[in-house]
Amino acid sequence: MTLPGGTADHRANARALESLRCAVVTVSDSRTEATDESGALMRTLLTGAGHSVAHYALLRNDEPAITAHLRELLAMELDVVLLTGGTGLGSRDRTVEAVRAVLQKELPGFGELFRMLSYQEQIGTAAILSRAVAGGAHGIFVVSLPGSRAAVELALTRILLPELRHVVWELRR
Fold first, then answer.
1. Within its chain, how far is the Cα of 152 from the centroid?
2. CB 45 within 8 Å of CB 153
3. Do the Cβ atoms of 66 and 40 come closer than 8 Å?
4. What DSSP character marks residue 3?
5. What pLDDT digit, counting tens, does each position of 109-145 carry?
């Protein structure tokens, strides 16, 4: 039995959000725009799903710079901000801390589901090394993913693209 106002109703309302305005940010000390496969894949998958990529940036692993850039993005007319890279355990991996500094509400289920799928389908127990995080800030859905192309593909195709409109609709209601 589905009650009015349940998930099915919310998804139906969310479908009215046609093309979401997205930003893609790659965090890396070694990649260039020419070698940024993960950021390129994000842009391709987003546009293939009917969304627009209104902003792309490639940033160094520098927490204050990442946080400042996120604050600029949160002032723009965007629906989604996707980051890739800087989520590991290395001393320079500070993307998660920068993202958490701007989030108003964290969605722990995203990271849990991402790690579960990573464990089952890709990397086994190494999934515990992922610090993928997502949440809402100022009506914008913010997601931080590992820098690997495989992680980006898994997260977008299996979790994010099916739910982006729904999440944005929920953040704004």
1. 9
2. yes
3. no
4. P
5. 999 999 999 999 989 999 888 999 999 999 999 999 9
Looking at residue 173, its pLDDT comes to 87
The pair of structure tokens assigned to 67 is: 């946080």
Which of 32-41, 59-68, 85-94 comes out lowest in average pLDDT?
A: 85-94
Angstrom distance (rounded) from CA 119 to CA 36: 24
Strand intervals (E) in the chain: 21-27, 52-59, 80-84, 105-106, 133-137, 140-145
The dihedral through the CA atoms of 116, 121, 122, 123 has a sign that is positive
Alpha helices in 49-160 (DSSP H): 63-74, 95-102, 108-118, 149-154
Residue 134 CA to chain centroid, in angstroms?
Answer: 6
Q: Could you read off the pLDDT of 3-27 as tens digits, one per residue?
A: 455 565 555 555 556 799 999 999 9
Q: Are 168 and 80 in contact (CB under 8 A)?
A: yes
**CA 148 – CA 38 distance, rounded (Å):** 6
Give the model's pLDDT for residue 52: 96
Q: Which two tokens stand for residue 5?
A: 């106002």
